[in-house]
Amino acid sequence: MRNNRRLLTYILLVLLVVWIGVIFFFSSETPERSAQRSGYVYRLLRKLNAVLDFSRTEAFRKVVTVFKRLFIGTAGAGPDEFIRSSAHFGFYAIFGFVTALFFWLLKRDVLVSFLLGVSLPSVVAILDEYNQAFHRRQSTVVDAFVDLMGTISGTILAHLLLLVVSLIVRLRKRKERDERLRSIQR
User: Fold this and answer.
1) How many domains does the chain have?
2) Apex 14 CA angle, 166 and 11, nearest 5
3) What is the rounded (10 degree) CA torsion for 145, 64, 98, 22?
4) In what helix (H) or strand (E) does residue 40 lie, and over which residues does it extend?
5) I need a labelling partner for 64 at 20 to 30 A (CA). Which of 90, 119, 143, 177 fits?
6) Are 79 and 40 spatial neighbours (Cβ–Cβ below 8 Å)?
7) In this protein, which residues make up the domain named VanZ-like (predicted)?
8) Burial environment of residue 151 by CB neighbours within 10 A (0 to 12, 13 to 18, 19 or more)
9) Model's pTM, two decimal places?
């Protein structure tokens, strides 16, 4: 069990380092390459929507409107801004999730895991925005805010997962204990 935990800790550490590299890879792109990539994603999503038709659902429209108002500042923002903000949110949600799990496995402390799950990705987000300035790209406070919201969401999701796993383990232990007690009483 201890070796599995150690292995998982190392795997998460490697994932963290790779994910930071991926983030800085994308932030080091030129504005033209970044626009080309988001255009490709937009076309891909349109093709996917043509098959699945998810954009006509009321739930999808509400989520998009709330997301645009919260993170872009206006519900009328175009698809390019929406895709870029969604990418920021998603990248940092994954980063916060993995960071929180890594520090929980390392320290077994929920508070440490939560604080580092939010703060480490937030520092990387600030450095990410700073890095963009060296590649003729605009760095914005809004992007850093979206990164922070993604980080917090990923960290909360990781802790919810830990809670569910913890409850399952406790229920299994209780069931095993009850079964042992019943077998002794017979």
Assistant:
1) 1
2) 40
3) -80
4) helix 31-52
5) 119
6) no
7) 13-161
8) buried
9) 0.82
